[in-house]
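Reminder to self: tokens first, then the designed residues, so the page reads top to bottom the way the pipeline ran.
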């Protein structure tokens, strides 16, 4: 099934370039937004599978627009595009529920792959950004103490899955390293989300870091 994509960026030239490249990559670009307010509106009207959202936009920034889109329940996945890897902004994006985080110097191929992964339910954590994002969130939430007497919340296998995700592995990579099927990985993730009260991979890893279940190398 063709992925329906909404573009949100206040720079028209960049939007036009993204439209051409994403259309060439096989995506159905259903709309374009020039600011966060329009992105929220079009998300409600068009229900795209994925929104490629600039972080810095007028009227309503990308992180707030992401938060409102996720809270609206339209079901769209949001991949954030940022000019600079600002750790506080990235931490806010995690909390807003974004499914991906890319810098604008990445290639068209990397953007296309991120959109595909987001549409399939994966969270896109590029190796360059994943550690800094999660590390920053861990510092911001350092007041949350881990109780060493707390019973194991997830199984040993689920811990292994979580650790590989924290290391930036995709679902196929986790499956390959643990010698299990991708379906089994997704089943483990569904169980993890329920146990950790998380909506996606990023929130699950964030919660696991807070609880001391996984570590960042």
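Designed residues (217 positions):
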């Amino acid at each position: 099934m063709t992925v329906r994509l909404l573009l949100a960026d206040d720079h028209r030239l960049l939007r036009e370039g993204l439209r051409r490249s994403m259309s060439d990559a096989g995506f159905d670009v259903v709309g374009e937004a020039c600011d966060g307010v329009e992105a929220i509106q079009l998300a409600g009207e068009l229900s795209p599978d994925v929104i490629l959202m600039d972080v810095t936009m007028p009227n309503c920034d990308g992180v707030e627009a992401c938060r409102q889109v996720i809270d609206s329940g339209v079901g769209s996945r949001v991949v954030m595009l940022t000019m600079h890897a600002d750790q506080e902004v990235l931490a806010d994006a995690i909390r807003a529920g974004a499914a991906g985080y890319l810098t604008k110097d990445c290639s068209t191929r990397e953007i296309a792959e991120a959109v595909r992964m987001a549409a399939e339910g994966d969270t896109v954590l590029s190796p360059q950004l994943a550690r800094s994002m999660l590390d920053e969130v861990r510092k911001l939430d350092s007041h949350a103490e881990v109780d060493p007497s707390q019973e194991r919340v997830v199984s040993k296998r689920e811990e292994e899955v979580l650790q590989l995700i924290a290391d930036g592995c995709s679902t196929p990579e986790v499956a390959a390293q643990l010698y299990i099927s991708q379906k089994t990985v997704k089943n483990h993730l569904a169980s993890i989300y329920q146990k950790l009260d998380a909506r996606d991979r990023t929130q699950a890893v964030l919660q696991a870091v807070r609880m001391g279940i996984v570590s960042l190398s």
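The beta strands are 4-8, 28-33, 50-54, 77-82, 100-103, 124-125.
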